[in-house]
């Protein structure tokens, strides 16, 4: 005889449970925003991790602080925070592992929290990191609290990962994110919703390249004809690469850095270009890479040559069938809450890109509505917190249980 599946709470149950939680949310947000936690401030990031760990421990999670290796230049990073809570279902009984993903670091320098302290005016909260991503992280914690209060444990496991270095490309935490993502069935990223309330179903991928142009040095006054000017070759290459823009839909090519020569009286023997390619698809990045290599193989200046190296690659978050299913689920639950759920694509990258890169379906932008990220005007619409937390809790409840 098959055991009956317990009816899961609807989104409005979670909304009702969230009715009295906003004051505590704002108190916690004020505390987090009051901590300077720039990517290059590991002590500040660790203070945020400690505050979150206390809240997660109270929610019944097993919490681990994960030290990360120093960067190649000796840069220190704060710890990552990895929290897990097992549910009542096994994989064989339809239980799924749901990953919530956010980041603790901001783009702001130490001292910013004192200069621009947390405030709430006219339904909007302001302060460094209030939207990106401290408000999103706390909405994740609020959703987990709503699940606990509703008695929902019909999932295999709920995992929350908070990273310390997202704003600089996650150089230290990326392997951890990819490992946890591979172990998860679905993921929900806690970046805040766009200013119009849209979720994010697609993010461009990014590839960084270094092109080294080599020529021959010579005295610029006595025998310039014996030289091969790498700076001139690089200049022609810049023009050729920038002309690639518009060749493919959704692909941009930008030569952002040019370095060449040491003295004005020497024919330049070496130049370096740093190039960024962004694309909505992996195939677009592949096409642009091939075009860079083709352009580099045809030097305009005789006696020069160019070598292309790919330095880094962040995969795109593409609207795959799995992502579209997540979005459809969010739309259905949002309709029950009276929250229209739409989704958009963005050119910015985040940790959700790495989740998508290992094949795990991920939906982003599940925090409250916010905007003006990375600026002194950054804001979070506190009137959207309850509904967005209820939507997130309902998503976890539904995605964690694959029996119905």
UniProtKB/TrEMBL annotation:
Ranges where the Peptidase M20 dimerisation domain occurs: 202-299
Protein name: M20/M25/M40 family metallo-hydrolase
Keyword Zinc on entry: yes
Cofactor(s) recorded in Swiss-Prot or TrEMBL: Zn(2+)
Transmembrane feature ranges: none
Keywords: Hydrolase, Metal-binding, Zinc
Record PANTHER family: ACETYLORNITHINE DEACETYLASE, BLL0789 PROTEIN
Origin superkingdom: Bacteria
């Amino acid at each position: 005889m098959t055991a009956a599946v317990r009816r899961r709470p609807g989104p409005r149950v979670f909304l009702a449970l969230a009715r009295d939680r906003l004051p505590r949310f704002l108190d916690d947000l004020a505390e987090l925003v009051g901590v300077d936690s720039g990517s290059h401030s590991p002590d500040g990031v660790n203070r945020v991790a400690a505050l979150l760990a206390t809240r997660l421990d109270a929610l019944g999670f097993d919490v681990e602080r994960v030290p990360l290796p120093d960067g190649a230049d000796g840069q220190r990073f704060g710890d990552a925070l990895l929290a897990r809570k097992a549910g009542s279902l096994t994989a064989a009984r339809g239980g799924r592992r749901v990953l919530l993903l956010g980041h603790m670091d901001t783009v702001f320098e130490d001292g910013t929290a004192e200069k621009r302290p947390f405030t709430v005016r006219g339904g909007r909260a302001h302060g460094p990191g209030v939207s990106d991503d401290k408000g999103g992280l706390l909405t994740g914690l609020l959703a987990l609290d709503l699940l606990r209060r509703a008695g929902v444990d019909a999932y295999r496991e709920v995992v929350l990962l908070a990273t310390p270095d997202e704003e600089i490309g996650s150089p230290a935490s990326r392997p951890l994110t990819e490992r946890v993502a591979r172990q998860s069935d679905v993921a929900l990223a806690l970046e805040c919703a766009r200013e119009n309330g849209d979720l994010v179903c697609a993010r461009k991928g990014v590839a960084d390249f270094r092109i080294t142009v080599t020529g021959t040095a010579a005295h610029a006054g006595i025998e310039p004809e014996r030289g091969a000017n790498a700076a001139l070759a690089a200049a022609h290459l810049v023009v050729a690469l920038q002309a690639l823009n518009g060749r493919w839909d959704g692909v941009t090519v930008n030569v952002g850095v040019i370095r060449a020569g040491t003295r004005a009286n020497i024919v330049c023997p070496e130049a370096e270009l740093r190039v960024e390619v962004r694309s909505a698809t992996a195939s677009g990045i592949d096409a642009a890479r091939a075009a860079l290599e083709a352009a580099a193989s045809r030097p305009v200046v005789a006696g020069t040559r160019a070598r292309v190296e790919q330095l880094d690659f962040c995969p795109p978050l593409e609207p795959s069938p799995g992502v579209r299913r997540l979005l459809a689920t969010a739309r259905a639950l949002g309709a029950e809450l009276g929250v229209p759920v739409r989704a958009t694509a963005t050119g910015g990258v985040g940790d959700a890109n790495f989740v998508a890169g290992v094949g795990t379906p991920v939906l982003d932008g599940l925090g409250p509505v916010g905007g003006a990220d990375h600026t002194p005007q950054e804001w979070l619409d506190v009137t959207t917190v309850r509904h967005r937390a209820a939507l997130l809790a309902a998503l976890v409840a539904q995605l964690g249980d694959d029996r119905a």
